[in-house]
Structure formats: structure tokens, C-alpha cells
Write the C-alpha cells for this entry.
Amino acid sequence: MNTRGEQLEKHEILKARMLKELQHEPADQDVFARIWDATAQLNRHIQVQFDTQNERSAIFGKDWDRFLPEDSAALFEALQHREVPSNSENTRYRDPDANSRTGTIKLIDLLEGAEDDWESESTSQEDEEPGSYGSIIDFPNFLLHVLKIQRGEEYRWSEEEDDDDVHAHQIRLEDKYLLEEFETVLPGAGAEWVRNFAWLLLRTRYLLDTYVIRIQLGLAGDDDENWVLHRAYKYTSDRTRQLSARSTFGLGSSPVGTTDQRASGRRVLMLQSMFQVTDTRRASKYFLFQALHWLHHNEHQSVDAEAFAQYLEASAVRRLTALKPEAVLNLGTQVPNFIFNFLDYVLWLRGKDKPHELAHLVTDPELVSVLRRYADGFSFRYRTSVEHFYPRSPDTVQLHEALAIADADHFGNLCIMSRSENSARSNLMPKAKIAQYRSTNQSLKFQVMAAITKELDASHDHWDVAHIHAHGTQMAELLHRIAAIPVSM
């Protein structure tokens, strides 16, 4: 507990243990605490947390959009030689001489106080980027990602099919194990290890902010679909200098490689949102770990959007292969959501006429025609419930015939929707579902099934077992071709 009798969170306990490793270096304690608290604030760009006068340029470059320190020594030197602001309210972080003539710092001074009590030493709040974001991860789980990267560990989707013993000596990305996992390295780690972790923590946070999707709060529409990839930068005019944000791979991004960075960046955003709506928890985000691990090895002041998109696509193919779709496609509500989401991604590529290997796997002209109508309005949302297009338990009062379980659970009769939509209309017949659901918010597989149903209705036919199996076979063959693509990762 702290001096106010409040129970400390696990990450606060961890912070205290790390500061203890720096107990003979009070100036480094101060810097470490600043880095820790800055990276814990996940709702805005990390640059906001640092002084605009000299710190921000030293760490993030003259345009505030790069991460410059090559190692912990450079980072700690930049923060130790900052000018301490005279603002009397900014007392959470202070000159080491403020406590005594010998320069000692009380550990409690670095630990106490709510994180939101401290504002960065900026010129003024009006000078800062106003956007607010929703992160896909929280701070305790983020710390575990950084530790796993520091340990040099990797993760492959094929491993999820192996025995649990394979992971016995690897960092678990579950915040409930936060103290336990750090306990394997902290005793006797020493000051240098802690400083190196602080550098990696700040660099990883910069990569997270710049190259990983977030939700931009306050935009029109549902917050859970406002996916953005934003890079912070210094906006300068005759009258102002402030932190602003723009698309990471849009106008003004570095001209890396030979491909259209904006088009490739759109694929990066779609792929990450595809993974996110599949793995909705803040813990166990192995797709995020893979992305951060790749970025650490491939970000050199900028990232090639095409290379990043190809890496994420290869990861998705490997994950699909690990799930063994041929064995699980016809299991009704037990079909993994990832299969639906990755299928939607490939259908989206084809609907957008992307010159892409995956898009070229979709060859049926009628299917392509449907996809072109709906691809522009498609985005990945939290569709987490598997729905039977033809209900498994139809209303027999209206003389609707129940299908055999094997037919109802066939992949050709399945799509994903939000839980609220599924629970409200699960027993509606296909034609009624199409009429009541907002078509622009549905998955592309649903759109394809709806288009088939509308065409059948026009010819006085209806969605039945034959059409279920025909559509299911077409989608299963597509998934088989996707899983057969060789990947190098």
C-alpha cells in the first residue's frame, strides 16, 4: 500500500521494484519514473508527455515524428540534461537536489500521486494535439509485450496447436502474471538492465502510437469502428507551433519503397483491425506482439507500408493454416471467428480490385460483382457472434421447415454479426434478416449470401440446402487456396 492506505496496482509494485534497482543512482530514478509514467498514458500521443522546449526535439527529432535515442545512455542523457520548468505546479518530477544537498530522491516521491496529477512540461495545453484515442491494449499488458521483446522471444501461430509445455519458459501475455513474469528477470537484474528496459519501453510505445491502430474517439459513427493509424508531428505556422496528427502512411509519410504507401497503409489498417476484432481482449494479443516485434527490427525512422502489410498477411495465412479450416468449417457456432474475418479481408481485397495475390484467388464474376458493390463501405467491427443465415430453430408456427443440423451448421449457412444483432433476430428467415439488418454494417460474406437470396427471390426461389452447400463449397475452396499460399515467416 502507499502512504494513503491505498492498494497499489501490480504495475505500481513493479515500478517500485525497478526503481529499487536504481537506488544508488537518484538521477536515473527520476528519469525512469518519468518514462514509466509517460508511457502509461495511452490515450494520447507519447510526445505530449515531454517538454516542448528541449526534451521533445531531443527524443523525437526536430519535427517530433521520429524516435532518435539509439540506446538507453542517449535517452537518459537527454532527459537528465533537460531544463527544469519554473512552473510551481509541476512538482512531481524535480531536480535531484530538491530533496537534499547530496542529491538523494525519496522513492515515495516517485511513486505517489495519481498518474493524471502530472501534466507534461509543455508550453500550454492549447499547443497540443487535441485528439483522444482508445488503445487496443492497457499498460500492464503492454509491459509484458516489452518484456517479451527484450527477452528476444518470438511467436508463431502454429504453436497454438502444440502442447502447453512449449510455452512453459516463455512470457505469458496475461496481466494477471505481470509480477510473476518480471520476477523471473528482476532479482539481480541491475541498473543497466532497468535503464535498457526503460529505453525499450519508450521506443515500443512510440512504435505502438505510430504504426498500430487505435480508435479515434469523437468521430461520427460508432467508436468501435473508427480505426486510425496516426503519426504525431510538429505543425508550424506563423502564429503557432503545436503537436498534430496525420495518417501514418498518408500524405507527408516517408517515400519508402516503390509502392503506393497510402494503398499499402490501408491494407495495414484493415489487417490490424481484422486481428483486433478477432482477439478482442486486452490480454493475449499475440498478433500485436508479432507486429511490435517486426517493427523493432524493421523501423529505421520509417516503415515500408507494403513490407508491413505483407508481413501481416503472411501472419494471417499462417494462423488460418494452424486452425485447420477443413476440419472446423461446418461446426456451426464453433467455427473460429478468425476464419470469417480473414475471409472477409480477402473478399474486400477483391472487391477493391487490388492487384494482389490473395485477391486474384477470387475468380467467380458474379461474386466479384457483388463484392465491388459493398467493398467501399466495409470495415471490421466487433462481429463476435456466429449466426445461422437460415435459422437453426425456425418459427414452426409459420410453417418454416427446420433443416438437418448438419445443413444448418454448414459453413455456407454461417456468417458473423454483433451479439446484439444475433440475439435480437436469430430466428428470422433469410429474407427477413436481410430486410432488418443494416446492410452497410454487415460482413462481406453476409452480403454475398444476401445477394444470392435476393436473386433467388426475384425468380421465386429461396435459400435452401442446395444453395447453402453451393455457397459453402465455394468459400471452402477459396479458404483452401488461401491456406495453400507459401509464407516465409
